[in-house]
Design brief:
Elements: H1 2-13, H2 20-51, E1 61-67, E2 76-78, E3 81-82, E4 89-91, H3 94-99, E5 110-113, E6 130-132, E7 134-137, E8 144-152, E9 159-166, E10 176-181, E11 196-200, E12 216-217, E13 243-246, H4 253-258, E14 262-269, E15 272-279, H5 285-288, E16 302-305, H6 311-314, E17 319-326, H7 333-339, H8 359-366, E18 375-386
Parallel strand pairs: 4-6
Antiparallel strand pairs: 1-18, 2-7, 3-4, 5-18, 7-17, 8-14, 8-18, 9-10, 9-17, 10-11, 11-13, 12-13, 14-15, 15-16
Transmembrane segments: 20-43
Protein name: Beta-glucanase
Keywords: Membrane, Transmembrane, Transmembrane helix
């Protein structure tokens, strides 16, 4: 019996003597063991991915450049001609801007304005677009801490103003950082009532990850889809909406201006891109002292970590750009209709306009007085670099 038992046990380890049932049992057992090992590993990896977050260690920043108001415009090129986003606007050079008083310099600030003088009876009129300004800084940057003193933000029906960082000649390959932007702001029923902070890139940059911020993830207009895919390539999931964050109504337009404006700060580094917006009475003392230290500031309004986006690969060689667009790709009839702005294209009235004649272009062409609040007022811009 002992020999027989030993023989049976030995035969079990000799796979050459296994039958089909034995093989089946072994396979099932192997699958079960593999599942026990692999499933917890996959769950752990998924949990680790969801919890991953970069280490925004303290950086020591030193002032590298100041855009002072007395020579502010010397630091910029004026983009001229038609709007690349199909707006109903003509961007003019420095001479035209001076003639139409679109870039006045005040005691401690500068203004960037939309024309309010050309009406339907003017020669020439504004049927092909209203005069405005688009500034692009001569200097380009790769990372840094950018501090913008803003006293007034443009608002009103048909306006599409923006303060942003972009390489004008390499979009979207070198990325786009929208610092302050709004569409139809302060319109009676505007769906976007606060500041929109948005990134635009080419493929493989997403923000459906852990983030620490006070702003709300934006949604793609009319769809309810969260705007977390920064990719603007054809066929991307959010139709070039970028990955956006929206602030409360006090962060843009009439409410922002009534409070005296504020200071916007962008920190652009390998770990991510963050943006703070401080009211006049809440500016950190270290900013006023010229020694900004984001590591001790409150939570930012917007946070774009590098968890699923190679910040260094997607963002480089950026100019500071400030402009005020009118109508264009961001204000189709669906957005205009939801805003509560006038709809002059009814009855026998034949709309006028440039690229696409619609309610927005007609409004811009025939109502110069509607743009008295469509201006930026800037104090100094400061650029810091870490050592």
């Amino acid at each position: 019996m002992a020999w027989q038992l030993h023989e049976k046990r030995a035969s079990w380890y000799d796979v050459r003597k296994w039958g089909s049932l034995a093989w089946a049992g072994a396979v099932i057992a192997a699958i079960a063991v593999t599942a026990v090992i692999v499933v917890p590993v996959l769950v752990t990896r998924r949990n680790n991915s969801a919890d991953r977050y970069p280490n925004y260690t303290r950086l020591s920043y030193s002032l590298r450049e100041t855009y002072q108001t007395k020579n502010f415009f010397d630091n910029f090129n004026y983009r001229t001609g038609d709007d690349p986003t199909h707006g109903h606007v003509h961007y003019v050079g420095s001479d035209y801007a001076a003639t139409y008083n679109l870039t006045p310099t005040l005691v401690d600030s500068v203004m960037v304005k939309v024309d309010t003088s050309v009406g339907p009876s003017s020669i020439p009129d504004a049927s092909t677009g209203r005069f405005s300004v688009r500034l692009e800084s001569k200097r380009q940057y790769n990372q840094g801490l950018f501090i913008f003193h803003i006293k007034h933000s443009p608002y009103g029906c048909a306006t599409w103003p923006a303060l942003w960082l972009v390489d004008p000649n390499n979009w979207p390959a070198h990325g786009e950082i929208d610092i302050m932007e709004a569409v139809n702001p302060a319109a009676p029923s505007s769906p976007d009532t606060g500041n929109s902070i948005t990134l635009h890139t080419d493929a493989s940059c997403r923000m459906d990850v852990k983030r620490n911020m006070t702003g709300s993830v934006a949604t793609v207009f009319g769809s309810g889809i969260s705007a977390t895919d920064c990719d603007v390539s054809p066929g991307s999931s959010n139709n070039n909406a970028g990955c956006g964050v929206t602030g409360n109504p006090e962060t843009y337009g009439a409410a922002f201006n009534a409070a005296g404006g504020g200071i916007l700060v962008v920190e652009w580094r390998e770990e991510g891109i963050r943006m703070w917006q401080f009211g006049r009475t809440a500016v950190p003392a270290d900013i006023n002292a010229g020694k900004p230290d984001p590591s001790i500031w409150p939570m930012p309004l917007a946070d774009f970590p590098n968890t699923s986006c190679d910040i260094g690969g997607h963002f480089r060689n950026a100019s500071i750009v400030a402009n005020i667009g009118l109508c264009g790709d961001a204000i189709p009839e669906s957005v205009w209709g939801a805003s509560g702005c006038p709809t002059p294209c009814v009855g026998s009235h034949k709309c006028v306009g440039g690229w696409t004649k619609n309610n927005c272009t007609d409004f811009v062409s025939n109502n110069p007085q509607a743009f008295t609040n469509a201006y930026w007022e800037f104090g100094e811009f400061q650029v810091y670099q870490h050592s």
